[in-house]
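Lecture 7 notes: from sequence to structure.

We start with a single chain of 109 residues. Read the sequence below before looking at the structure.
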Amino acid sequence: MVLPVGQSILVIAVCAAATQLERWLPFLLFRGRAVPPVVQYLGKLLPMAVMATLVIYCLRDVTFAAAADFVPELIAIAVVVGLHLWRRSTFLSIVGGTVCYMALVQLVF
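Now the structure, written as tokens:
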């Protein structure tokens, strides 16, 4: 379905406004006040929960029938963990793991 230009611009504007509201709302709500402990707890817990969910989602279809089905994933996971422990850089870990996985899948397995 192709939207007319005016509707496309309206959809983009609404998405941009919602994104900005989401980013500024905590600052507007907690301006001049202490952040409640439950919000601080969620701020510490949710990033790990999101990452765990993404890992489970990415590995949900891995089978152990043949080495080519699971070895690239295991090597890429090891690369991600190693890079993160070495440099503590999320960006480097994600890019390095992705490049490693794609190279393994395209060139080796």
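DSSP finds four helices and no strands in the chain. Keep this in mind for problem set 3.
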